[in-house]
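Q: A reviewer asked whether we had any structural model of the full assembly, not just the individual parts. We don't, so I'm hoping you can provide one. Inputs are below.
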Amino acid sequence: MVDNEILLEVKNLHVGYGAIKVIKGIDLYVKRGEVVTILGANGAGKTTTLRTISGLLKSTSGSIIFDKEDITTVYAYNIVSRGMSHSPEGRKVFGTLSTEENLFMGAYTLKTYDKDTLDWIYNILPRLKERRKQLAGTLSGGEQQMLAIGRAIMSKPKLLILDEPSLGLAPVLVRDIFKAIKEISINGVTVLIVEQNAKAALQLANRGYVLELGKITHEGISEELLNSTIIQEAYLGKKR
Amino acid sequence: MDIFLQQIVNGLTIGSLYALVALGYTMVYGVMKLINFAHGDLVALSAFAGLTIYTSIFSNGGTSIVAVITVFLFTAMIIAVVGVLLERFAYKPLRTAPRLSAVVSALGAGLVIQNAIMLIWGPNMKIFPSDLFPSTVYDINGVVITFTQFMILGLSSILMIALYLFINKTKMGTAVRAVAINQDAAQLMGINVNKIIMIIFIIGSALGAVAGLFIGIYYRGITFDMGWMYGLNAFVAAIIGGIGNIPGAMFGGLVLGLFNALISGYISSAWAETFTFTLLIVVLIFRPTGILGETVAEKV
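A: Here is a predicted structure for the entire assembly that you could use as a starting point for your response.
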């Protein structure tokens, strides 16, 4: 599944809010077909990194290359049609739109939504089909997360960016969500995922990066990170 | 009973005009969380622009459908352009500024438009020609309805139904609702938020323009500062219906129009405004989000 072609490459990225520097020169890449995770504590800059990649924030320096194009200065709404889709932190579903309308909005950049994609989403996230006429704001947290993921793949992206998909969910739902992400990845979508649940993320991912205070401190294939004592102590809750 | 029915007809007429103007307030508020206080002055500008277009192009007088349609389309286009410019220069630079700055800018922009009208057309009342619509009067069992009233009710209904369908049934309309809920999430769908805001100003201003022309045709006398009064009433209508809510603005407009007409008919038109704001206070005490305004709680 994974080939050697690099789909996303971030080079020496710096991002700040006013005088506060949040991202202090990070480099990362994602190969086509891979699942890559970014781990880190609260405030490490994970969400900022993702928001910069998808164009919601502008970097102060550095570059972002996606699918051989430099998208560093491209607006967020123009990046979606290039094949990148970002499911934001906290789900951000459109509460007063129905589930189905939310999914249709995911396909906004397409002339009409793709029926096969919709069927596929209903197949891997069957709860959404049951709830398709219901207002998204009335769904449970887990269902909203499923909707946020489904909505993000309606645009048929090459790269799916997920920000904390397990945030605030019961363990049984986390399992469902990760199963769905795996299914999406198997179907050829490259995935970049930020997670607090480091163990689940590393089990899913091919490779991982560890972000601390705006810098990447560790990187490697998932097995290595899972077995590294530093990572185990800091993120997997194991005592020495 | 005849007075009652007559006041219902009159109330629905003025209510339709309030509703058309209220839609402009509510759509801008829904998407930008901004009260566009210059909106009422756009309505006034529309009446003056329409007057000039009508008298300069069709100076021979005489009612023709072509003349009326031309005046409506031309005026609506001009006001839509002014609305877009207003957003571009008075609100867009303040998009990320504190909300109060944009409100102050709106008040300022309203004064600029109002004074521009005064400079161009003068401070005195202008009289709208009476020959745009035939002076036919229909008498239905003692209830009188003029051709103008009939047109106001008809065209307003058509425009409101069209807007409702656009917002609820089309992809672009759904995108407008999505932007109103969360601009960042909307951008992540590939929606150009600036384009949606422009569309909102085009639609809102054009609806206000239609209302402005009807105000000229229905009441005849137009003044440079009339936008404030109509704007304020329409703003109250939008709040009564639930600001940010499109059916709410339509409903609020009709309710306020009927209420005004009944107060004028049974008590005194001098008291109309007093009762308008009393109604506003009562509605806000019992339904702070307006009659149709309700928010679906977001799960965190």
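A: Points you may want to mention in the reply: Chain B touches chain A at residues 171, 174-175, 177-178, 181-182, 184-193, 296-300 (CB under 8 Å). Chain B has one domain: 2-286.
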